[in-house]
Amino acid sequence: SSASEPSSFAGASPPSPSSIGGGAGGAASAAQEPRKMASAEQLVLDLCDRELRENALLELSKKREIFQDLAPLLWHSFGTIAALLQEIVSIYPALSPPVLSAGASNRVCNALALLQCVASHPDTRIPFLHAHVPLFLYPFLNTFSKTRPFEYLRLTSLGVIGALVKVDDTEVIGFLLQTEIIPLCLRTMEMGSELSKTVATFIVQKILLDDIGLRYVCATPERFYAVGSVLGNMVISLADQPSTRLLKHIIRCYLRLSDNPRACVALHNCLPDMLKDGTFNISLRVSHANISVVTNS
């Protein structure tokens, strides 16, 4: 993954303690591969057993980086995706009023981590999209509570959407635009934690980088100013709580918006002064040329 992408997309699990290098250790590691897959298959089967599901969710989410081809296994095994969706739907009643416990949040986030695995894999990404699975996550992004269980839920849900947009694919962007992901991302950009804001801004950035995404946002003044006002408010708040990573994504959004002639004209009036007066130059280490693309074109 590129340096510009939030590190959360790389997968939260620590690397496996398997032996490094060749020789006998390497041979032993190779011999363990069939055993790993056998254990992955058993855990996937356990997902369909209500008594065993919680442990299977935990173990699979922790080990998803070391199980090769886990995504196709999850997608193609009977009843598995239905079991994961069952986990997601089961906590809908706890969203409003907001009574989600930490334990319930952790459990559903383990299910979401497995869906992120499916969303990331080239063989399962588009079937995952065609099945409209991301829509099951939208109620989580529509929550307002700032308690830790809800923040963790929003962040993990954004991770699934982020995995979809990480690979440039117009079909993915078209689906997300039709399902109105932008207002949900804008909400998180306004009220989420720094990490949630960063992932949500990354998603908006990737949507804008696709031509249909840029056209969509710039099609009406209302859409443009909805995005522009949130970006502007974020810049102002960053003056008090700096985040170089978040600021970089915000500036990339502005630079991409400037590729649209009408939006570029509008940016002359709504670009925050802090991006023009040198407030962030030290923390960001960007050249004036970047901002001048917006301010002088």
TrEMBL record:
It comes from the Eukaryota. Pfam families: Rcd1. Residues 1-13 have a biased composition (Low complexity). Residues 1-33 are annotated as: Disordered. GO terms for cellular component: CCR4-NOT complex. InterPro entries: ARM-like (IPR011989), ARM-type_fold (IPR016024), CNOT9 (IPR007216). GO terms for biological process: mRNA catabolic process. Belongs to the CNOT9 family. This is Cell differentiation protein rcd1. It comes from Aegilops tauschii subsp. strangulata (Goatgrass). The lineage of its organism: Eukaryota, Viridiplantae, Streptophyta, Embryophyta, Tracheophyta.
